Amino acid sequence: EQILVPPPTGSELSSEAVNNLKVKVALLCVCLINLGDAVEVYLPSVLTQEIGCDLQLTEAKQGILSVVFYSFYAAGSFVSGWFANRIGRKKTIIISISLAFLVSVLTALSHEFYLLLVSRAFTGILVGSNCAITYVYWAEVSPSKEMKNLGVFMAGLSFSAGAGYTSLLAYWTLSTLGWRVFFVLCSSPIFIGPLICFTFYLDETYVYLRQQQNQANNMKERCILTQSAETTVSYLTSVPDEDNTPKNSSKPSTAAMILIAQLSFVYLVNIAQGWGLILFVPKVYSNYNVQVDSNSPNCSSVFGGQFIKMALLSGLAPIAAETLAYIVQFFVSLPTSLVFSSFVSSVSFLLLSVLGVQEVLISSEVLMGIIKAAFAYLNLTLWFYMMEAFEPSIMTLASVTVEGFSKLGALIGCSLVAFLSVDIVSYTMCILGALQTSVASFLWFSIWKN
């Protein structure tokens, strides 16, 4: 029997238009935050040697300065979920962005190594917090699976664009303005827009969830209990009380925890390889330049057009891979894509370790570009899979856990590159890639069997 649905009133149409606009603004803010986070992540690749030259730092201190950000980034990813569940996603993002803005200025004014070290540690905590929670915010505010995947895709492109932007900005301004002005120009202007929007315009995601729940209740009252309405009601398993405190009505099952652990390890190795390249590429260029010109100063071992190549490796290659991943997810299962990208990354590192860093650098640059593309492909595919596999009530736990372990991978990869030789790093990454492919294959087999 066909049920006549009353047409929406003017107030309902107005409310729906406002919500749609807020969703679009939220997507723009998520993209800008990821852009700014990427700038902070890639800063050590272009600034460490310049800072070391200015402050007369030893190689050991330069290595510590490179990895301190990534270690505290991991800590920020872990603790952000606790704060977000108590004060809300919106407040967590506002606080982390505001403090990151202030700390970046403090970093630019630092003239002592230990003050610089502390400021970079605080920046790592703050950036790690907003990076993890922005994905949670988007998962809760997006109205459909298609919008969720589109948001993850756009955020991934923004992160890759931020990597290329950092290298290009260094090419244009680092030698003329100095590293302190360059530091302020990087992420601080990018965070201003999201900070204003989250402070004065966007709502807490609990408000969106309550509005969707009210819409579902209105549909029930109008006697249109279609399958979509039932799905909407069952999907919103964690609706807050009136004081905006979320209910813990759904606890993760054992299977969900095992899946989170598997994804965490795959992501850990992927970030170790991908983020390790952040310092690996300039180290390769540095070794090559010193071989070509033994009189070149240590603090100027990466220069000129090599910043352009770094922008291509860190920006263009991942953007192409993420575009491919977004298209492929409509035709190929996500676990299959995870296994494929893990295999490509591990094989590329194997070839890099076998061939070694060539004097001409062409083969090394091609392989590093392939590794960077495989890293971006797996990264985006993993987030697609998480958006599909976990309910909103579990997404916070999954996102914070996977992000936290991935940043431990970043610490491992960047530490290897900072303190070990290029050849040893290549062999170690190859072994990690083989383990990653094994775990991803087991994950694929488990999903296929069930």
Textual characterization of the structure:
This protein has helices at 10-55, 59-87, 89-108, 113-141, 145-177, 179-186, 188-200, 205-221, 227-235, 254-292, 305-328, 334-355, 362-389, 392-419, 422-449. The chain is mainly α. The model is unreliable at 1-8, 223-249 and 292-298 (pLDDT under 50).
Features:
single chain; 450 residues; mainly alpha; 83% helix
Task: Provide a brief overview of the structure.
The protein is mainly alpha-helical and 450 residues long. It contains 15 helices and no strands.
Let me know the largest β-sheet: none
Order of helices and strands: HHHHHHHHHHHHHHH
What is the number of beta strands? 0
The Rg value, from CA coordinates, equals 23 Å
Q: If helices are DSSP runs of H or I spanning 4 or more residues, what is the number of helices? A: 15
Strand percent estimate: under 5%
Mean pLDDT: 75
Secondary structure class reads mainly alpha
**Global outline:** globular
* Unreliable residue runs: 1-8, 223-249, 292-298
Helix content: over 70%
C-alpha termini separation: 37 Å
How are the elements arranged and paired?
Layout: H1 10-55, H2 59-87, H3 89-108, H4 113-141, H5 145-177, H6 179-186, H7 188-200, H8 205-221, H9 227-235, H10 254-292, H11 305-328, H12 334-355, H13 362-389, H14 392-419, H15 422-449
